[in-house]
């Protein structure tokens, strides 16, 4: 397993970075061109749009998935009836692939086939829901579909963290007359630091690699309004036969993942080692 990790992950990552400085087109070549590929990358309006979209999607996906996931977990932690059933229902979308999720939500949001057509057929003639057809709103369609699939997973992680809180803490808070919301905000959530950080790393890494959902739901359109970095990489490497440009974009994605993973590794392992 160690050899596999070194060859496949580390080796391929190094190869990606090295050949991002070459003039590779349809096939890899060893002609180094310095930072030319990166200059083209950052002067490309399509790349700028993809980064902007990912930042917008990422910020709102993180905030809403954590808030909704925690609220659902807190409600599930109240020892409600049919807890297993509700947990399965909330987690079920996560078991689906992003391709399936994208296709399903494409049908739901299709103006001539989905929710809009259904409600108009029921008599609401003025109802309008054309998120995927407008450049200004298509990113919201991606966000809705992404939250529908990923929030249940965050809920399960949060629920595991809540179940790890000692019952005596809740009893002490009730004896002291501390409101429940204050107990969550000032006592419980700080104690769930490890779960929060782990959830953040998992969700953020998935956001950086966002690809399947975009291809299935919007294919990057209308125009490039819903373009994301992973699709930019794939299109340049396989559709446009521009390996060098694709690898430069891929290297920037790798850098963004390292920016997430390295602080997490330090917080999780560095401090423990120093104790």
UniProtKB/TrEMBL annotation:
Question: InterPro entries under this entry?
Answer: ABC_transporter_permease, MetI-like
Location in the cell reads: Cell membrane
Q: Which residues cross the membrane?
A: 54-76, 88-108, 138-162, 183-208, 247-267
Q: Where does the ABC transmembrane type-1 domain start and stop, copy by copy?
A: 51-266
Q: Name one Pfam family in it.
A: BPD_transp_1
How does it sit in the bilayer?
Multi-pass membrane protein
Per the record's keyword annotation, is Magnesium included, yes or no? no
Keyword vocabulary terms for this entry:
Cell membrane, Membrane, Transmembrane, Transmembrane helix, Transport
The principal location of this protein is: membrane
Q: Which domain of life is it from?
A: Bacteria
Family to which this protein belongs: Belongs to the binding-protein-dependent transport system permease family.
List the PANTHER family hit by this protein, alphabetically.
Answer: ABC TRANSPORTER PERMEASE PROTEIN
Q: What is this protein called?
A: Sugar ABC transporter permease
Query: Which species is listed as the source?
Result: Paragemmobacter amnigenus
């Amino acid at each position: 397993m160690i050899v596999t990790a070194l060859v496949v992950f580390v080796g391929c990552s190094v190869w990606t970075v090295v050949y991002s400085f070459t003039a590779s087109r349809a096939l890899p070549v060893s002609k180094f061109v310095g930072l030319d590929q990166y200059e083209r990358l950052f002067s490309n309006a399509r790349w700028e749009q993809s980064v902007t979209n990912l930042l917008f999607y990422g910020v709102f996906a993180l905030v809403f998935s954590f808030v909704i996931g925690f609220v659902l977990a807190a409600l599930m932690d109240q020892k409600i009836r049919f807890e297993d059933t509700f947990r399965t229902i909330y987690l079920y979308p996560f078991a689906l692939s992003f391709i399936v999720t994208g296709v399903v939500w494409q049908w739901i949001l299709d103006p001539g086939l989905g929710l809009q057509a259904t409600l108009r057929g029921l008599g609401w003639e003025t109802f309008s829901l054309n998120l995927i057809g407008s450049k200004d709103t298509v990113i919201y369609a991606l966000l809705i579909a992404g939250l529908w699939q990923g929030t249940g997973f965050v809920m399960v992680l949060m629920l595991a963290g809540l179940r790890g809180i000692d019952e005596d803490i809740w009893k002490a808070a009730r004896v002291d007359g501390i409101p429940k919301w204050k107990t969550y905000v000032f006592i419980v959530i700080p104690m769930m630091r490890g779960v929060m950080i782990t959830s953040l790393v998992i969700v953020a890494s998935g956001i950086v690699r966002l690809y399947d959902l975009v291809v299935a739901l919007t294919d990057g359109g209308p125009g490039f309004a819903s373009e994301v970095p992973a699709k930019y990489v794939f299109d340049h490497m396989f559709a446009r036969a521009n390996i060098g440009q694709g690898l430069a974009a891929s290297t920037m994605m790798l850098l963004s993942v390292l920016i997430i993973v390295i602080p997490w590794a330090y917080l999780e392992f560095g401090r423990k080692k120093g104790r």
